[in-house]
Amino acid sequence: MDEALSDSLPGFFARTRLEVSDGNRSMTMTDFLATASSGRRTQQERSDTMRALLLQATIELLYERGYSRLTTLDVAKYAQVSRGALTHHFAHKEDLVVEAISWQLRSASDELEEFVANIEAGPLDTDRIIDHLWEMLSDRLFHITMEYLPEARNNTPFRERLMPVAAVFHAALDRIWLHLSRTSGLSAERAQTILNATMCLMRGMVAQQILRNDESYYEDLLQYWRDLLRREIAQAATSENIKRKKDR
């Protein structure tokens, strides 16, 4: 069971990290399922495995079928567990979906934190930032977001449960514009605006992919944005140099 599901993990989810119950261990979902499928396990380890399988199955089915067509019975079948085992962990569909989204966004946040740590160690590379954000958003992340946003718009309790989850992801994004501000000469406010505009552009591009499958079209947009951002930073650097000369 675990091995089959582990083999089906797409790239992003195979790399994502899962916090296990004792709070002291973190491993990728692929490693977690591989560990869980070998040797004797404690009751808590079996429970962790069950939750991991259910969260993975929920994310997969959100992507494949959408929120409105997602049922807990389908999740149980996909995870190859009983309906009773699912309801033992998650009493309602919303509980399951909120936890799965939380796991997905925590995983994306962890990956962003790792990315920022890497780029902070070297010179500013805005092309790399744009490419990483596009890879992250277009690799299912925003496709899945689009599935549950309509429900969040009309379901206030559901929306309120998701807001703190989304805040964790946005906090990780904040580190990117802080890095951009520190290394480019842009003000913090301007860097944040650029990052927000970048995210809005990419969300729109992902949404457009539903009806337009044209890789060169999206690459042209990304290249335009790369060039635009480089020009913006070059202008900021020039302005900063002029200001320093005047202040001498």
Describe the structure.
This is TetR/AcrR family transcriptional regulator. GO terms for molecular function: DNA-binding transcription factor activity; transcription cis-regulatory region binding. This protein is mainly alpha-helical and about 250 residues long. The protein folds into two domains: about 1-90, Homeodomain-like (Arc Repressor Mutant, subunit A), CATH 1.10.10; about 95-245. Helices cover about 80% and strands about 0% of the residues. It has eleven helices and two strands. It has helices at about 1-5, 10-15, 30-35, 45-65, 70-80, 85-90, 95-120, 125-155, 155-185, 190-210, 215-245; strands at about 15-20, 25-30. The chain has a two-stranded antiparallel sheet with strand order 1-2. The longest helix has about 35 residues, at about 215-245. It is elongated. The relative contact order is 0.09. The mean pLDDT is about 85.
Could you provide a short overview of the structure?
This protein has helices at 2-7, 11-15, 29-36, 43-65, 72-79, 83-89, 93-120, 126-154, 156-184, 188-208, 215-247, and strands at residues 17-19, 26-28.
Query: Topology as H/E string?
Result: HHEEHHHHHHHHH
**What is the rounded Rg?**
21 Å
The number of domains is 2
Assembly state of the chains shown: single chain
- Total E-strand runs: 2
The shape, in one word, is elongated
Mean pLDDT: 85
Strand order of the largest sheet: 1-2
Query: With helices defined by DSSP (H or I, 4 residues minimum), what is the helix count?
Result: 11
Separation of the first and last Cα atoms: 69 Å
Please report which band the strand proportion falls in: under 5%, 5-15%, 15-25%, 25-35%, 35-45% or over 45%: under 5%
